[in-house]
Amino acid sequence: MATYSWLSLSTAIGALQTRLGSSVFWPSAEAQGYLYQSLREWNGLTEQWKLPFTFPATSATPWYNTGTLAGSPRLRTLTDATLYSMMQGMLLEPQTGAGTWTGTNQFTLAQMQFALQRRRDEVIQATGCNIAQLSPLASIPNTVRTVLADTVLEPRRIRFVPATGFGSPITLTREDTQAFQFFKPGYLGSQPTTTGPQSWSVASEPPLAFDVDGAPNVPGTYDVLALNSGPAFAPPASTLLGLPDDWAYLPMWGALADLLGGESEQTDRERSAYCLNRYNQGIQIMRQSNWLVQANINGVPCDTPSLAEQDLYSVEWQDNANVWPAVVQVGMDFVGVCPGVSQNVGLTLVGNAPILDATGTYVQVSRDDWAVVLNYAQRLATFKMGGKDFSDTAEFEKDFYRAAQFTNKRLLDMGIFTSMLNTEGERQDEHVPRGGRDEEVDSGGR
User: Fold this and answer.
1) d(CA 403, CA 195)
2) pTM (global) more than 0.85
3) Sheet containing 173-175, strands listed edge to edge, beginning at the edge strand earlier in sequence
């Protein structure tokens, strides 16, 4: 990969500290954190680092997560400790990360932990960025309801897989119990041994459960793709956030809004409102962001249909070795490969902002983007000053977003079909809308 080699990290940190007028109030480690966040947000807005990635697919593994595959340019690497450290600096507390709290009584690490974890899971639900295949769930004979683990935020697709000798797998359609009553009045009874359920519902069920339109009386399992919560944080251990690196700052803004919205010594209504606005704004942008550009199988370009399209137009494609080759996108960073045989899969992905070159020396930013990246880093650094000192840098933030809009328009004009490439990763959400795409995301007003 070609890299920039004109701006060293030490020079960039020095430039920010010079802007701020102090290397004591903003030590190098803290200044570096603001620069890194600025670079990640810039790439999240402009999606400039489009990078190739190849991995081997096998018949034993139908689903792949580009956020966890080794060598992926979208590998999720940031931990809760990174955000604790950022938050501590922004709240004028010692930056100990997930380690022992040495700050004031105004805040505690436990408060940061629970606020950050709650907002992290809210981001996952709002953006659908943590889909996984669950371990097979045994179907209970003559029972329509199946209970899910409390880590499941939302089931997205369900197949009934009969035991060997009892039939073929059935991909269930998502409906609701009213549809069951209209079109299958006897759904509360058992199915004949030769068939299984055809549909599933979560619309009229309690949380952590789904119903099927007929209780199978043959042995089998449910194969479930679901949106899951992220891992539980457990300081002093560092825990992966479970979010794409370039969007990792989002729960931080939500957590800061909660902390500064507390009572007594914590209260700062103005900055709390600012953080909540940044949180809601960021989620709306992330929902519209792209992650997948193109795909090929064994060096031949292929389509990237949504899971909804593939299930509709290529029925039971998972069990068809002759199905038309495709990379099926289920949601952000999660894909299926068909046919399910051993083959090489190539993807062009919107990679994480690389931050530094391979030697860890040079900042990966172009000369024309450096000014707005530096300005925005200064804006982040002044958050802890509050009041007029912080409000005086508001124009830097506006300029950061204006520059990103200009860059996106410029990049859009560089190709013929760039508008299609820039929205390729949104096909599943287009075919199965999840609702709330234009609503603010705040747990108090859902």
Assistant:
1) 58
2) yes
3) 145-147, 209-212, 199-201, 173-175
